[in-house]
From TrEMBL:
Keywords from the UniProt entry: Repeat, WD repeat
WD repeats: 232-266, 267-300, 314-348, 437-469
SUPFAM superfamilies: WD40 repeat-like
Protein's name according to its UniProt entry: LEC14B homolog
Organism: Eucalyptus globulus (Tasmanian blue gum)
The keyword Repeat is annotated on this UniProt entry: yes
Coiled coil start-end: none
């Protein structure tokens, strides 16, 4: 009993210390209404509070990004979250988690506070539009693809030195997508052609000129339908590196067997361009696809049958889908849509029927027209999505969105490029817009969050590749206030 009382008293003193060292001391006589930072708000609108996600995913996200329950006990007049770094360290020293160390959720809770909004610093600048930019799975490499036939691979661990400069072959219009193999030895790149090329990036030469200094082997997805019969919008390696899945302009999904060196599967999947495909998880059995026909579809390769029917269909977008990113658990994914929204999906809610009724009563083409203001508040009457995130702009090109990394943030955020030249970050659970990163002068088609560190790299049609990091004092920026503030310590 005495031990418990001593333990509780010790905890109260630790809590007091953590709170005191992390708060701002504000002089009461100079307090005025707070104003948000430029670009920080919520995705529901300026006069609405974020509505928390009431779903199993909210619980799963919190499990991955909340500290131990002893560290989030609320004290009178004080907010339970986020827990200060001092309080986290003190709790670890007192072994409140009974583990003697930080759990992965504890680590995510601290790292996810370091939202990479500082900068940016320019890593490279090209004279052509950047279409693709992605970190490798371990964050040691970064791949950027440009409309001017170039793909550059940077060694992140060696000061962003250009490790490989690839001049592509048989490029039509632009590089639409690239993908690194799991062992990071090979890269595939696609364009508006049914031929996807594969390059050995492990070779010593820095310059890789297609079929001049190195062989860029062509993987033929056309099945004898002609060299220019369709284009590839999306391409991804399987987790074991034995297959490549692709989405095409002939409304189909293709799977290429790299071991057998032949096309192994073609699915007539949609009624319009398949802009995006990905594997649902490490098994490779489930494929997600998104199309200009507005539908997301789920395909189970184990039970396709002769009719090539999907396992299910998810309706909710009012316009075409530009990108899909899987959470990696075979259950949840997000999609970016030309209706200017990101939607979160749970495949357990998928249906088998498609509502073919059109919901648009106006003429609109995202390639050269702005989205009609009257359409921004429209809703699909049979929306099966779990949540919707708004604030960014999806125009002119197939803009991409992603979950933030699992190891450093617990997938607590969603981030996306935007036609208005910004990178937007949303909170998965609350829907709040956490930040809008402003630097570029043209649409940001792609961006990538480092898998281990609080760092985002964005690429734009202005040719810039820039890096965003967290603030030097170890915290996200404090909202500007019209009052005199005396800072003690920030942790």
């Amino acid at each position: 009993m005495n031990t418990a009382m001593h333990f509780g008293a010790g905890w109260r003193s630790i809590a007091e210390m953590g709170y005191a060292m992390s708060r701002l001391e504000i002089e009461p006589e100079s307090c005025e209404d707070e104003k948000s930072l430029d670009g920080v708000g919520n995705s529901q609108g300026p006069n609405e509070l974020p509505r928390c996600l009431d779903h199993e995913l909210a619980h799963l996200t919190n499990l991955k990004s909340r500290p131990h329950e002893h560290l989030i006990r609320d004290f009178p007049g004080r907010q339970a979250l986020p827990v200060s770094t001092v309080k986290m360290l003190a709790g670890r020293e007192c072994n409140y988690s009974r583990r003697g160390r930080f759990s992965s959720a504890d680590c995510c809770h601290m790292l996810s506070r370091y939202v990479p909004v500082n900068g940016p610093s320019r890593l490279d600048q090209m004279t052509s539009r950047a279409y693709v930019s992605q970190f490798s799975a371990d964050g040691s490499l970064f791949v950027a693809g440009f409309q001017g036939s170039h793909i550059r691979i940077y060694n992140v661990d060696k000061g962003w030195k250009c490790q490989k400069n690839i001049l592509t072959k048989s490029l039509r219009w632009t590089i639409t997508d690239t993908s690194l193999s799991p062992d990071q030895r090979y890269l595939v790149y696609a364009s508006m052609s049914p031929i996807v090329h594969i390059v050995d990036i492990g070779s010593a030469a820095m310059d890789s000129l297609a079929n001049i200094t190195e062989i860029h082997e062509g993987l033929d997805f056309s099945a004898d339908s002609g060299p220019y019969s369709f284009g590839i919008f999306s391409v991804k390696f399987s987790t074991d590196g034995r297959e490549v899945v692709a989405g095409s302009s002939d409304d189909s999904i293709y799977v290429y067997d790299l071991v057998a060196n032949k096309l192994s599967l073609r699915i007539p999947a949609h009624e319009s361009d398949v802009n995006t495909v990905c594997f649902a998880d490490e098994s490779g059995h489930i494929i997600y696809s998104g199309s200009d026909d507005t539908y997301c579809k789920v395909w189970d390769r184990r039970c396709l049958g002769a009719r090539n029917k999907p396992a299910g269909v998810l309706m909710g977008h009012l316009e075409g889908i530009t990108f899909i990113d899987s959470r990696g658990d075979g259950r949840y994914f997000i999609s970016n849509g030309k209706d200017q929204t990101i939607k979160l999906w749970d495949i357990r809610k998928m249906g088998s029927d498609i509502c073919r009724r059109g919901f648009r009563n106006f003429e609109w083409d995202y390639r050269w027209m702005d989205y009609p203001p009257r359409a921004r508040d429209s809703k699909h009457p049979f929306d099966l999505s779990v949540a919707t995130y708004k604030g960014h702009s999806v125009l002119r090109t197939l803009i991409r969105c992603y979950f933030s990394p699992v190891h450093s943030t617990g997938q607590k955020y969603i981030y996306t490029g935007s036609h208005d030249s910004c990178v937007y970050i949303y909170d998965v659970v609350t829907g709040a817009q956490v930040a809008a990163l402003k630097h570029h002068k043209s649409p940001v088609r792609d961006c990538s969050w480092h898998p281990e560190y609080p760092m985002i790299v964005s690429s734009s049609w202005d040719g810039d590749i820039v890096k965003w990091e967290f603030f030097g004092n170890g915290e996200t920026e404090i909202p500007a206030m019209k009052k005199k503030i005396r800072r003690r310590h920030l942790y």
